[in-house]
Amino acid sequence: VKVGMGIKNEFGDTGFDAFDSWSAGSEQYKPSDIKSTWRSIKAGGGTTIATVFKMAKDNGFVMKREPVSPEEQARLKKEFAKRAK
């Protein structure tokens, strides 16, 4: 549920596919339960995407940093500015 809360807080309803995909890794996965859980989560709660990253790190996830080309940096800055509007 915490993962779902962090995802929904960051991405709103567009984050459902990520939550569903992550949840499918469980042996107890039931699509109807995931949809019900997702509907019960309110965006803007106290659990953020930072919580999700911390949980991942605590369980062995290591972020890989790869160099970004100047062209990709420019594209990302443009996309960020567009989203910020």
List the helices and strands and how they pair.
Layout (H helix, E strand, L loop, with lengths): L1 H10 L4 H8 L7 H10 L8 H10 L11 H15 L1
Keywords:
about 80 residues, 5 helices, mainly alpha
Structural overview:
With 85 residues, this protein is mainly alpha-helical. It has one domain (2-84). It contains five helices and no strands. It has helices at 2-11, 16-23, 31-40, 49-58, 70-84. Helix 1 crosses helix 4 (49-58) and helix 2 packs across helix 3 (31-40). The relative contact order is 0.15. The model has no long low-confidence stretch (mean pLDDT 92).
Element-level helix/strand string = HHHHH
Q: Helix tally?
A: 5
Count of DSSP strands? 0
Helicity, as a percent range: 55-70%
Q: What's the number of domains?
A: 1
The value of Rg in angstroms is 16 Å
Major β-sheet profile: none
Distance, first to last CA: 31 Å
Counting helices, strands and paired strands, the structural category is mainly alpha
Regions with little confidence, pLDDT below 50 for 5+ residues: none
Overall mean confidence score, pLDDT: 92
Shape: globular
Task: Please indicate the percent range of residues in DSSP E strands (runs of 2 or more).
Answer: under 5%
Summarize the structure.
This protein is mainly α.
